[in-house]
Structures are given as structure tokens and as C-alpha cells.
Amino acid sequence: MVTKNLPLESHPGNLLISQRDQIFDAFRRWGHLQANLDPLGQYLLPAPVPELNFEGEDADEAKGYYCGSIGVEFMHIPDAARREWIQERMEQTSPAPDQRQVLERLIQADLFEQVIQSRYLGTKRFSLEGVTVLIPFLDEILNRAADHGAIKSVVGMSHRGRLNVMANTFGKSATDIFSKFEDANPRSILGGGDVKYHVGATGEFLARSGGRIGMHLVSNPSHLEAVDPVAMGRARAQQVRLGENGQDQVLPVLIHGDAAFAGQGIWAETLSLGAMPGFTVGGTIQIIVNNLIGFTADPEECYSSRFSSDIGKRLPIPIFHVNGEDAEAAIRVAALAIEYRYTFHTDVIIDLVGYRRHGHSEVDDPTITQPLRYEKIKNHPPLYEIYAKQIGVDPSARVREIQTELAEAQKQAARMGKRVVLATLPAYWSNYSGGPYKPEYELDTGMSAAKVEEICNSLTTYPRQFHIHPKIKKLLEQRREMGRGERLFDYGMAEALAFGSLLLQGTPVRLSGQDSQRGTFNQRHSVLVDIENEQLYFPLANLAPDQARFEVYNSVLSEAGVLGFEYGYSRDYPETLVLWEAQFGDFANGAQIIIDQFIASGEDKWGLLSGVVMLLPHGYEGQGPEHSSARLERYLQLAAHDNIQICQPSTAAQYFHLLRRQAMRAWRKPLIVFTPKSMLRNPDASSPRASFELPRFQNVLPETEVQQVKRLLLCTGKIGHELRIERAKHKDSTTGIVFVEQLYPWPEAELTAEVARHPDAREIVWVQEEPDNMGALSFVVPRLRRLFPERRVLSIKRSAAASPATGSAKAHDLEQKTLISLALRVSDEN
Length: 830
What we know:
By secondary structure, the protein is α/β, with parallel strands linked by helices. The protein contains 28 helices and 24 strands.
């Protein structure tokens, strides 16, 4: 229906809305569906929208604002002030940018790719050609951010255009970039390193105002969106370092591909983090480098909606779509995006729509799968030529100059070869080390009884006017008794004591996870809730006026997103004890990409260190397959070259010393802690106050009760306490039980010394709760046989299984009793 003169209609609340307002309202809501976005005119063609069937001057005006090279989605934002802010700026003209500077940047971007294509034909580089407007777009983002006080920017991006951004935004020399295409001495990187389009970069952007922005490009694996939470965590850490104005001073920028933005689950997890307490970064600039293709898949195969950005509409943030061959429109959107971010401190999504000139990795032939599109691309000029013609400038002389410069840079790179250079870490890493473990890294973590009592008193104190829950009041009374030495410490209080002692020493503590404030097993209670007004009180944040920062957050129901964030935070705040807790250890498998690609291998691939701690509740207690095993075997499979620490402390005091060791010693490695569930309050795993005076964490807990050991059982965790209880029942005086508290790095010296104390023990038996194909067995038994060839090494475990545990509590009890009985009377047939 085409209408020229619409009658006035009643608006809710009996307010009259004019015909002009009706027209503009319709185009504000739906104009993006008719915007001219695909430079090749193949996809995203204007859609029929009945609500936009208007004619006349008002319709033409509204169409000019909302259906040109820019389409904007913002009417889903519930805040009227934010909607009005956008419509006011969309419905006015904007000054032209410095056209010669834009042209210069487009020439630099396109020629950089062309030189690589000609000199390194057939080598993967993930070219930016087709969306080279990204380079002047980033210029505008960073220039405007500098005007608002930005001094740093943390950038996360996948492969496409990464090398171009390094060269033209970060200021890396072309010679340095090209050198990465030359071969390296293979012996220098055997088993380590990474490909050139994964590694990170640092640089500096000189803003037109004269300000300088320190740039950091976060190292990223082939899991395209895995870098997103890591970059956000790094930005958050840097913002916290800078203090009150940190969110203005550090700008996070994430650059995505269209298929990955729509399809990667970790991004769906991460998107909401930026607006959550404890995770906010004051707004991230989200840029989709949209090639309208995913490897070989067309848009309709990559996402189920019209735009790859539609996932962003779950949040009250604006989404700008812009034709990537309208350079001035793109720069206008960059200006709007950064101004919006600094005005409202939320994310902004920009969908830069272009194309991909070559195949996915420059070696594929895209004409096989998209013949019509690549027939168009074959004769389509690069953007700098299109823009030069648009502004009436002949770029040929400047093109020749840049070609000469790049050709000379390539020759220099060929002469120097590829240099293998480890990452240079920021100054705040100067007190910390990676690499192989050295005994000199150890230090004492014990505390005097007086100090333990002092901290316990503070931890169990709350404001006089605070209305505390009766059960928590009783708990705090019991914990005060622990501090006085009148009661054994459980894990919850041992952890609080470790945190409190570190905070008073000046070490910040940050903990996040699902329900981590209270604790999944009602064991932590790091936050007290007033039962009359639900106001919160944080005892650990109120120990002393000059204490370090304490943070504990109940995270969104995410594993990959939140663990990635905390890993990123630990990368830029090594002085902080950063911990992530899984609700159950099994749930960490939802974050396997972060564990595999960053935590376990980040130092080997990129020379980057982290001290992040993973707390994984673990133990077979008849609760079924998904609430038993934290998959110890997976972490042991990832362990090599002292890259991570894998520990299962069997007592509260051991847990205390382990946490303090992680924070206090200079050796910075990720720590995987298999924490207990039922053992949290078990007296057998509890510790007297005197245990906290011991000097340090013991990698191996020796046998102390049996003197004439004939058979030695080695184990870790809950099963060891159950074995000791059963041994006492049978008055067994010949079976020794040793706890291996640290599985990696493998405590060879301590184990050798402990076994040597029992020369009559001709049998060494590894006992575990997990099935034969799980747990530590395949890691431990070969090492025991190598260490003790003169002794018989056996094992007790559940039968191999496809699932970690039975779902029947009765079956579990039967299995557990059988396992313990077998362990205490090992048969010759085993």
C-alpha cells in the first residue's frame, strides 16, 4: 500500500503522533532492511518491508538517513535517551573526513596485501582485501578514543586482516611482518611456537591530537572467537591497574568474522559479560569484518537470520551495518560508535560489509563453490581505486612509492630470515618467571598461631547492626574457635585464612564462578547477607584499611567465557591470585578450548605466562556421571615441560599452603586444583591450627602411622582417607598409605625418598576411584615402574568405562567398598 497523506492516529496515552513522526519511526525501526550494504550487490538486497511503503518528501528524507550505505538497529534499546541520541546523529549531515588521509590508508592497506600475494604466492595470510576500509576505520576509532583520554587499547581478532592491522595500525614494520614469511631455523622452535597469524603484537598508535595509544594484539588460536573473553579480561585488568578512570583510558576492541560471530558458542557466552558486575570493561567496540562468506559457506549456511550480528540484539546495544566500499560512511560510523561508547559505556557492534578477494587462505580456489561471486570479484577494483576516483585524485604516483617501499622491505626480510623472538612481557612481569621448575623458587608459607588467630577473628567479625542469618552466625562462631585452636579447620576456613593472609600481605585476590560467593557446597560464605534488607558484607574486604583488593563474583552460567576472562585477567595482573571455580569439576569441559589453547599451551606457543588457578570439585560420591570426575586424566595429558601444576590437596592445611605458594612464589604457572566435595567438612581431612605453622605445601604426604610397611598404597584425594579409615577398622599394621598431593610436576624426588623409607614394601599399589581408562593411572604407573624397577607395581581402580561413574548411589557404594577391600588385600592375579 502506498500512501501520500496519512491521517493522524492516536498514540498510546492519547498522544497525537504526526505523519512525519510515523514515517520516521518506521524507518528508524526497519530502514536497515533496505540499506545498500553489499558492495557486490549479491547478498543483503533490500528486503520488502510493508511498514516502509511511504512516498513523499518525508519518506525520501528518512530513507536517505536510514537506507543508504548505513543501516542501524537501535529501536530495541529500551532507554529512550539512548535511542534519541542515535536518531539525532543519524538524522543530520556529518563533515567529510580528511579524504587524502583516508586514501593514503586505503592504498597502504591494499598494497600491503598485494605485495605478500606476489612475493609469497600460495602462503596463508588471510588477506584483508575486500574490507580494507577496516584500516581507516580503526584510525577513526583510535583517534576519537584518544580525544576521550584513551592511552591503551587491547585488541582481540581472528586471522583475517591480522597482519595488515599489525603493520598499518600497530606500526609494526613491513620488514618485520615479511620476515615472518621467511623460514626459520627449525631447531629453534621444535615442538613450540605458532604460525604468524596467531601470534600477538604490541605497538603504538599516534593519534592526530598528538596523543599516543599503546596497542596490544592478543595472541589467538584457530578457535576464532576464543580470544574474546581473554581480551576482555586483559582489558579489565589494565583498567583496574589504572584506577578510577581506567575504563576511559583502556579501550577494548574485538574484531570478528561474520560466520564466527554468528556461530561460535563462546561468543554467545561472552557477549553479556561486558555488562556484568566484576566483568564490565566500560564498553567494547565490536567490529565484524564481514566477507559474506565462511570458508566456503554462503551466508544462509552460516547464520539463520538476515545479519550475522543478530545475536547482538539480545542486549540493549546499537548495531551499525555499513557498506565497506563507502569509506566515508564507515568512518562516520566509527565516530558514532566511539562517541556512543564513551557516552553510555556499553558495547557497540559495527558490521563492516565487504567481500573476500581470494580463497579462505589464499590457496583455496573459491570459484569452485562461489563461481558467480568470484566472477564479479575478478574484475572488481580495489577500494583505493574506487575512492580515488570518487574524490578526483590520481593515486598512481603514491602507489608506485609505496610499492617501492614494500618491495625493499621484502628484500630486507629475505636477507635477515625469520627471527625467533620470545614475547617481551610488560614491566609488571619482571618479578616472575616461567620455564622449568627450580627448587630455589620454594619459600615458606607457614604462619604463626597468633597471626592465624588474628586473621580468624577478623574473618568472623561483622558490623554490630548487621542482621546475620542464624546458621551463618553459628558457622562464624565455629570458625572463631578454629582460630583459637579449639576446633579443626575445614577447607572453607582454610581457604578464607589463605585469602586473608595474602590480602594483608598486599596480594589482591579475585575469585569468580557459578555461585562462588556462597560456594556450591555451602562451604565458603565469602559474602554475608543481611536477612532484613539483603545488604552485603564482605569480611575479606574489611580486614584492614591498607589491605589489598578482594573480589568475589557469582558469574554468569558460563565456563568458556568466564574462564577465558579470568585467564586474560591473570595475564595482565600477575600480582593477583586469580581463581576460577567450576560448580562441579566436570563442568570445566565446557571450557576445554580455553584450557587447551591458552592455559596449557600459552607459554609454549607464545612465551606468555599466567598464574590462573582452576578450582575443580572432584570425588566419587554416588552423584552420577556429571558430578564425580573433573577428568584428571585430561590435564595430565596436557602436562609437559612444566607448563602447568596439577594438585589434589588432601587436607585443609595443604590447601592453605598450596594457595599461598601459588601467590607468593615467583614461578608463575597455571594451577589446576582438584578440590573436595564431601571431604570439605570431613574430620579426617580437617587440620589442626598447628598445621598452618608448617613451612610449606608437601608434594607428597608420607605414611606416619604404620612403621613396618609390607605393602605401600599410593593415592590422591578422598580415596586415601577412606583407605585409612578401613585400615584402622581392620587393625592393619603392615599397609602404608601415601598421598601424592602434586601429580605434576611429578614429585620424583619426594616419592623416591618416601618409598626408600619402606624397604620391606615389595609391592607398590596405585589406588584410584576413577575407571581404568581415566584418572591418573596411565600417567602414574609407568613412572612408578621406571622409578622402582625392583618392586612390583600394581593398581586398583574401577573397570574401564565410557562414562565416569554410575548413576546409582547403591551401585556406587558397592563399587567403592569392593575397591577399598581389594586395595587392602591385593591379589596376585591383579
